[in-house]
Amino acid sequence: MISRKAAIARQFNRSAAGLYDMHAHVQRTMADMLAEFLMQQANIDDSNKLGMLEIGCGTGILTEILVNRWPHSSITALDIAPAMLLAAEQRVLGTANPVGSNDRPSSDIRFLLADVEKWAAHTPASSFDLIVSSACFQWLSQPQQTLNYLYRLLRPGGILAFATFGPRTFHELHTAFEEVYRAKGMVAQRHGLTFQSANQWKDSLTTTGFSNIQYKCKLLTEEYASPRDFLLSVKALGASTSEAVISHSLGSRRLFTSLYKEYENRFSTPEGVAATYDIVFIQASTPE
């Protein structure tokens, strides 16, 4: 049986070939807002050669921002999916540009294929000044343990900054699923990830030893032509993981037919249907 992490990597490998960037409207907004949040909250001199780690670089949306904002830094961009790393390298290093192009970043950057939850446990302490991540921490299997590892990797006064999804994310979808199960007299199952709140992350960071914890939350609403289009977009992003077991008596086709109808009845808009993204931005630091 394929492991959870292997399944996640396989999903993102499939979405890396153009599909991810076509559907990553929210992820681009998250990366932009995280960079802005970081610059507002942290006094980081862009003339210094900082050691940076980006966790879950994906196709390089945030990586490109980091390279442009801190051009003298040394950046390690890590991801679990080989195809994502290739896409990020093409975006940032310009290998997709015409032959002869000299447009290359001045940053020292390397792309690393690894599962951060394993890699961070064996990486030398005090390796980085800044650790960043966007739209990745919701995938961590052991977030508290991973935060402990990341704390160890930061130098004194180092900063951890990340953007992830909060508990209101896709509340329309979960509400519709719950109503479908209720109407059929069945126990509701969770389809998709369960997301931590900002306060839960803050508590975990405090437990680890981080200080100067700052956070903000923002609700974004996207519109899709139909519930099916919404779910196809989520799948194109590689984010369609679900541990729900669909009853044989119900069947996948009947379940989703009922879901689409319930979703449209409850959450229709003039443009189709709405889907909420609850974005959590958090920054914390280690003692000087």
Structure commentary:
The protein is of the alpha/beta class and 288 residues long. It has a single domain (4-169, 194-222, 277-285), classed as Vaccinia Virus protein VP39 (Rossmann fold, 3-Layer(aba) Sandwich), CATH 3.40.50. The chain is built from 11 helices and 8 strands. Helix 6 (116-122) packs across helix 7 (143-153) and helix 8 (171-183) crosses helix 11. The relative contact order is 0.16.
Give a concise summary.
The chain has 288 residues and is α/β, with parallel strands linked by helices. The chain has helices spanning 4-15, 19-23, 25-41, 61-69, 82-93, 116-122, 143-153, 171-183, 198-208, 227-236, 252-267, and strands at 51-55, 74-79, 108-113, 128-134, 154-165, 211-224, 268-269, 272-285.
Provide key terms for this protein.
single chain; 288 residues; alpha/beta; Rossmann fold; eight-stranded mixed β-sheet; 8 strands
The name of the CATH superfamily reads: Vaccinia Virus protein VP39
Question: Could you tell me the mean pLDDT?
Answer: 89
The oligomerization state is: single chain
Number of helices: 11
Radius of gyration: 20 Å
Classification by helices and strands: alpha/beta
> How would you characterize the largest beta sheet?
8 strands, mixed
